[in-house]
Amino acid sequence: MSDIFRFDIEEQTLTKEKVKLKRPSKYRVIILNDDFTPMEFVVWILQVVFHRSRAESQQIMLKAHITGKALCGVYSHDVARTKVIQVQQLAEQHGYPLHCTMEVEEGEEES
Ligand code: TYC
Question: What HAMAP family does this protein's entry cite (predicted)?
């Protein structure tokens, strides 16, 4: 929050205007389970696209496998969108139905 002071010459008054500054929204990228994509491919995707360690990638993959979805990371809108597209392209190139989505962080407004 910052204040802008405006001096109005005609009215000879000093007014204070509140300006709300919004932090850019952050987006969660979520990987979704399916019955066909090999586990090892998902682990590879998590390492290559999301720069996760092998151990982290195995844990994330297993979480998605068991619960249906798992968090890959939290990014700005453009980075999240690029990662979703990269996953989609790599999955398509290899003929797998692997999918991921992005959703705005809780408590953040979509801008
Ligand atoms: N369920 C897949 C299998 O049994 C593996 C898998 C895990 C696929 C996580 C997608 O996000 C995923 N081969």
Answer: ClpS
- Taking the chain (111 residues) in runs of 10, the rounded mean pLDDT of each run is 49 71 93 98 98 98 98 98 98 98 79 53
Is the pTM for the entire model greater than 0.85?
no
Domain-located, residue 12: no
**Is any ligand 1 atom within 6 A of the Cβ of residue 97?**
no
Which residue of 31, 35, 39 sits with most ligand 1 atoms within 8 Å of its CB, as the best mutation to test the pocket? 39
Residues pairing with 4 in the sheet: 17
Query: Is the minimum distance from the CB of 71 to ligand 1 under 6 angstroms?
Result: no
The enclosing domain of 31 has a CATH number of 3.30.1390.10
Note down the domain range covering 32. Answer: 26-104
Residue 111 covered by a domain: no
Tell me the sheet residues that pair with 30.
71, 101
Q: Is 29 exposed, middle or buried (0-12, 13-18, 19+ CB in 10 A)?
A: buried
